[in-house]
Protein: Gluconate 2-dehydrogenase subunit 3 family protein
Amino acid sequence: MRVLDKAPRVQRRGFLRGSGLGAIGVVVLPAAPALSKEAARALTADQSFTHLGKHAGRTLVRMARDIYPHDKLPDKFYVQAEAPYDGLAKKDAALKKLLVEGLQDLDQRARKQHGTPYLQVKAESDRVALLRGIESTPFFKKIQGDLVTGLYNNKELWPLFGYEGSSWQKGGYLHRGFDDLDWL
Structure:
């Protein structure tokens, strides 16, 4: 499931943008309290999953990261992609049942193979193996299918992937950087 992100070549525009953001980070980051990745993930997931619960939220975010791994993406984008389930499950009993039973099944499989819930399985390869075991289930298909649009249709993410958005309004790509793709 994991395809490593290709490292982009450094171009002048990207260098200037990155160095400007780096300068801002030098000023802002020392004032911010240090949080581990796990603590940040838990904090954002806990705030977004009031109906399904903290464990469900954290598990869905971990699952999302394992299905579509992008090491450079902050967890907030994965939380934004999964958070709508909380509100939808509150209104739709069938969806809530699908999510709750799917998460319980995933945790049971993890406990059986690793002695711990899915969220606490340390190795990514072990978590991916667990996901492969459920990839034909309606639960997995629902999460994976909705995650495609929830994650990749987020306009805030497009610059991180090097995608400039729709181009037909601007005359197409042919005369606007058609050859500039360095990530493909």
Residues 2 and 117 are 21 Å apart (CA to CA). DSSP finds nine helices and no strands in the chain. The radius of gyration is 19 Å. The chain has a mean pLDDT of 80.
